[in-house]
Amino acid sequence: MNNILSFTPVMKRDGRIANIFYWILVIIVALALFVAAAGAGPEDYIPANPLEDWFNVAANIVCVIFGFLVLIPRTRIIGALFGVIYMFGAMYINYTVAGVDFFVSAIPYNTISLTVSSILVGHYFEDLAYVFKVSGEEQKALNRTVQISH
Questions:
Q1: Among 131, 122, 118, which residue's Cα sits nearest to residue 29?
Q2: pLDDT 10s digit of each residue in the chain, 150 long?
């Protein structure tokens, strides 16, 4: 089984300085996603039509999962890609539900998070094929499992 914490092909290609730089970006994205999951929102304003509690809880759980995916080298591209999608969704919700005032106040945070996530997606895009690659040993184990179940 491939170790999910091992270096990906892009990480192996990069030099030491580049790996350090991208690890810093990874930590920024993960922290941004964890802060978003903490439920930061307009404290002094309750929208006329707030989102359902189950939706907020589900979005926060998904956000934490994305944060952990970004931290794991093998799933980094998936976490960063979902991070970009999540931030676009958060910006949309901020604008439509929380209102323009909160949207404008959250723009710096959202823009930085979105930009850094996009940089990671662009850099680690080649690793997308590596995420779903199955090694020879894993394939043999899968074949044995399929044979046993039949």
A1: 118
A2: 457 778 888 899 999 999 999 999 999 999 998 988 886 555 655 665 677 778 878 888 998 999 999 999 988 999 999 999 989 988 888 888 877 887 888 888 889 999 999 999 999 998 888 777 766 665 565 556 555 654
- Can you read off the two tokens belonging to residue 8? 């990906």
Distance CA 67, CA 38 (A): 12
Nearest 10 degrees: CA dihedral of 92, 94, 95, 97?
Answer: 100
Structure tokens at 56: 């907020």
Q: How many CB atoms lie within 10 A of CB 144?
A: 10
| Structure-block tokens of residue 136 | 């020879």
Torsion of CA 105, 108, 114, 118, to 10 degrees: 160
Nearest-CA neighbor of 78 among 68, 70, 88? Answer: 70
Other residues' Cβ atoms within 10 Å of the Cβ of residue 48:
6
